Amino acid sequence: MDYKKLEKLLEENNQPAFRFKQITKSVFYDGVGSFDEITTISKDLRKMLSEELSSYPFTVKEVVVSGDKRAIKALFELSDGNVIESVLISPKPEVWSACISSQVGCAMACDFCATGKLGLGRDLISDEIVSQAVFWRGYLRENNIAGTYTNIVYMGMGEPFMNWEHVKESIEVLTDENLCNFPNRGLSVSTSGVVPGIEKFADTFGQINLAISLHFAFDEKRDKYMPVNKAYNLEKLKKSLQYYLSKNKRRLFIEYIMLDGINDSNEDAIALTKYLRLIGDKKLIIVNLIKYNSIDEGFVPSTAGSVQRFKELVKRGGIACTIRKSIGDDIHGACGQLAGKNKC
Ligand code: SF4
Q1: What is the value of pTM for the model shown?
Q2: pLDDT over threshold 70, residue 341
Q3: Active-site residue among 106, 180, 321, 335?
Q4: For the CA of 113, the nearest atom of ligand 1
Q5: The CATH number fitting domain 3-52, selected from 3.90.550, 1.10.150, 3.30.70, 2.120.10
């Protein structure tokens, strides 16, 4: 919901000051999808708001639930006809975490990612980003799904730091205690390594988590599979992460997708460990090894044995390392699979 427009409309219609809080609470906190559901305000006001404003800046085209019910993917159609996706996952019982998109498609063209194959459609505005997170609050409430939902990850379609102004505004709205009131520490932004964005983020958001989609510890390989590395190579990325850690004593999450025969050798694990140790306090760094989710493009996921061996080598190098269980791959809602279409 465009809360600035709401503020203006209420003022023009001589509504008392508390009305703003009443409506934003219903939309942002309870996730109501229609003003008609807000029965604490008059019928006339509900009618006027419905004519002038929308609670969501998109229509919900489809919601698909995974077989194990631990992942739910929503397909949203924006007012210009573009589509985006968002996924709600349950990493453990009664805990929910939303993965939200920051752009329509993505220009970064990472070779192993379905979104990267789309190219960039356009940037999302703040309201379009915020409303994905808010939608899931309403979904959980309407479907009587129990659990806490406080984690939001900017890891859906798009590179958040290539849409800095809107992403910045969306974080401010999501964490504003008078608007969405999500806890700062529940938010994480994931980047493929856009150095100027990392530096701005370090200066602006000391309480929000940062994740780096690193995936390769050799420039030659990163250049080949992640074109962002040609602009911001591993050395430049390292300096920006040193800057981030000097400003924020927070944990830094390193995402590493495991690709058979490409980045899963002992040499890769040792290079990764060495690189991360150069960044700074190793106690602040944690590596998440991610299963590659097939997008039919010729990459093969590493075997379970290779992933375990890789993990042991990273840990032996003094860096914390976990294997992230893939959730939602049967609905193409897992990491790297969002392509703005339902393939089920
Ligand atoms: S992995 Fe992220 S940055 Fe790379 S193409 Fe996919 S969405 Fe874009």
Answers
A1: 0.93
A2: no
A3: 335
A4: 6
A5: 1.10.150
